[in-house]
Amino acid sequence: MKNVRLIIGIVSFILFFIILFQSCAAGVVNSVTASSDAGGSAGLIVAFMVVIAGIIAIVCRKNATGSIVAGVVYGLSGLIGVANSDVYKDLSIWGGLFIIFAIFYIFSGIKQKKSDKANL
C-alpha cells in the first residue's frame, strides 16, 4: 500500500502540469469568447489542490493520518472538478479520477490505522 501511495503521489505531480496547461488554455478561450464559465479557474484550483495532495501523499505515506488528509484533499479537488465541468469537460474526468484517489487514500489510511492499533 505504501508503494502505491508513493506512485499516486508522483503521478499527481505529472497530472498537475497537464491540468495546469489545460486549465490555462481553457481560461484563455473563456476570456477570448467572453464566456462566463469558470472551468479554467476551477481547473487551476484543482491542479494546485492535486499537487498539495501529492506532496502530502508522498511525505506522509507511512502515516495513516497523512493518508486520510491526502484523501480529503483529493476528494475536495475531485468535487470541485466535477462541479465546474460545464464547458471544460476534461475537468469531470480529472475530478472523477481524484475522487477515486480519495477513496483509495481514505480506505488505506483507515486500514493502516486499524493495523497499527492491532500491532500495539
TrEMBL record:
Q: Does the keyword Transmembrane apply?
A: yes
What is the protein's given name?
Answer: Lipoprotein
Source domain of life: Bacteria
Could you tell me the keywords of this UniProt record?
A: Membrane, Transmembrane, Transmembrane helix
- Lineage, highest ranks first: Bacteria, Bacillati, Bacillota, Negativicutes, Veillonellales
Membrane spanning residue stretches:
42-60, 67-85, 91-110
- Taxonomic source organism: Megasphaera hexanoica
